[in-house]
Amino acid sequence: MGKKIVVVGSSNTDMIIKIDRIPRPGETVIGGRFSTAPGGKGANQAVAAARAGGDVAFIARVGNDMFGSEALKGFAADEINIDHVTKDTTAPSGVASIFVDKNGENSIAVASGANANLSPADIEAAEKTIACADILVMQLETPIETVTAAAMMAHADGVKVILNPAPAQPLTDDLLKTVSILTPNESEAELLTGIGVENEDGARKAAEALLAKGVATVMVTLGENGVIIATADGVKKVDAFEVDPVDTTAAGDVFNGALAVAIAEGSRLEKAVLFANAAAAMSVTKLGAQPSAPTRHEIDEFMKNH
Ligand code: RIB
Prior knowledge:
Elements: E1 4-8, E2 12-18, E3 33-39, H1 41-51, E4 55-63, H2 66-77, E5 81-88, E6 94-100, E7 106-111, H3 120-125, H4 127-131, E8 135-138, H5 144-156, E9 160-163, H6 173-176, E10 181-182, H7 186-193, H8 200-212, E11 217-221, E12 227-231, E13 234-238, H9 251-264, H10 269-284, H11 296-305
Parallel strand pairs: 1-4, 1-8, 2-6, 4-5, 8-9, 9-10, 10-11
Antiparallel strand pairs: 2-3, 6-7, 11-12, 12-13
Helix pairs in contact: 1-9, 7-8, 9-10, 10-11
């Protein structure tokens, strides 16, 4: 059995249009190709962690509808424990509308639906599952009071917390103090600190500011420019793998899911980031969020060959 990873977060169905370029407000662009895929930052992280070798439990809400049922089937296929995924009868399943352009860049709008109803009571109900975890992984597509309740619970139980602050929003110092590893991208690091992250130097400064707020380790993800790792012992950089991007959607989610597994297995920070970078790089070469998350075997093979 793999290490125990608990993910608290969102589940969506992604409506994807792959198109030459993303329309501007008021503009219609034709010539796109439509597809659907399971997504949601939380679910993507759960699936990525399960495929990377974790024994994963997911805590979430889906609607009592076809999208919710399909999502549950997908989790079961990835052997994810869904004892704490509730079918909400008052809201539809979350949906995301995604444009992906010819360079693999995306723009995403989310209708949260049932994700917005994930509550601190849902966290209380999963207390035993969280207490037994090696790592708790979260993002910010569910209410902040729920994220905070889970982080406080895990911290009190001595469970490491990985928080991916996406989509970005201001966070209290009390929450940040519970976080073992915070994984913002450039814009998230900038929003959390007010420090411009246009380059590596800005990323280092922002990471140091977050350390000063009480986060144990900060990893600023810089896409194709790699990852800055900052701890009390100093700052290091791990390069990204070079790939031809098809769709960058969920690259961050796959990074966080794979990172959780590597950290739970006892990898040192740089080695864990290398593993997570490999998983993220592979995900960028395929269209769709969960369809792009690689298996452990695929990640190991990729690392051997690069
Ligand atoms: O991070 C990518 C995800 O963001 C998509 O799967 C979409 O559902 C949104 O949650």
